Amino acid sequence: MNRLLLSNPAFEQYGLKRLALAICLVLLGASLAHAQEGVLQIERGFAKITRGTKVRILREVGTPISLTLEDRVQVGTNSKATVWIRDGEETIQLASRSYFSLDSVSAGETTISMPTGKAQFKVTRKLGKLGGKLGGKKLGSKAKFQVRTVTAIVAVRGTEFVLGSESGQTSLLTLSGEVAMASAEAPEVEVTVPENQASTVQRGLAPTAPVSVPPEVQKEITQSDSANSFKVVAFPPAVPIEQARQQKKREEEKKKEEAKKKEEKQKEDKKDSKKGPDKKESEKQPAQKQDTKKPASGSAPGAPEEKRPTPAQAPAPVPKNLPRLDNLPQLPEGLDQVLENVQQETNRVRKKVIRLKLNRK
To answer: Does domain 35-247 fall into CATH 2.60.120.1440?
Structure first.
C-alpha cells in the first residue's frame, strides 16, 4: 500500500509539498523559540547561563553571546557582565552574584527579572511619559521598561538608575530622569523617584518617600559590587501597605473633589461669558448704579457734588418713640403772660442798645 501511495502522481505533487512545508514550519518554530532577544558580554570573571536543562559556564571575557527568553543568567563572584537589548538602546550592567532573566521583549515593552543582585540600567529609547499604575493596569499600550524583583516593580520612562535587591528589600537610586517603584504586593501604591533621589521597599511595607542622595554617596553606590551599598542612605520610615492604600484612596478622593469644583467653576465662567459684557457689568456693580443720583435742579452744571460725611462725621441716629407735640404737658396758668412780658422787655432793651450805638457814631 505504501508503494502504491508513493507511486501515486497526486502524492508526488501535493504530499511532498505538504511535507516540505511542515518541515519548514517546524524549523521556523524552533528558530523562533530560541530567537535572540539580547546580547550578554562578560566584563570580568564568569557567568552561568541556564537554558531549560542545559547549563553553560561562560568565561570568555569580551565575547558577545546571544540571549533568549529561556535563558537565566547568574553572574559569578567578583564578576561583572553587560546585557544589551534592542541594539544597545537598553543597557544593563550586572554586578557580581546577580540573577537576571528576560521575561518579554515586544514592540513597545521590555520586562526583565532580577530576583537578587545589583545592576545599573540605562534606557535611551523614547518611551511613554511616566504617570500610570504599575502592573499593567493603567499604562496601556505606552512603551515602557519594567524590572521585577522579589519585593518591587520598577517602571522606567527613558532614564538611568541603579537597583539593588537583597534579603527581601529592593532599593532604587535614580541617576537621571524619573523612575516609579511600587511594592510587588500592592502595585497600585507607588512612588515616583526623581533624579538624584532614592527610595526602598520591603515586604509588607510601602515604598519610602524619596530622599536626596549627595553626589559622593551616588558614586559609592554605583561603584560598589553589592546591593548592601544602599545602606549608606538614610531612608525615612515606611508605612504598612494597608495604611498606604487608605492614604492613597483619600488623596484620590480629594483630587476628584478638586476636579469637580474646577469643572463647576469652568461651567459658571462659560455661562457668564454667554451673557455678554453689558449684562455682566450690570450684575457686577448693582450698588454703584443705585448710588448714582441726578444733580439738583438749582445746582449749576458741573458743580462739585456735596461731600458726604464720613462715618465719623455722621450725625447720631435719631432716637425712636419720641413724644408727640400734642402729648406734651401743659404750662401752668399765668406762665404764658410772664414769658410774653420777658420777650417784650428783651426787645425794648435791644432797641435801646441800637439807638445808643447810633448816637455814638
So the answer is: yes
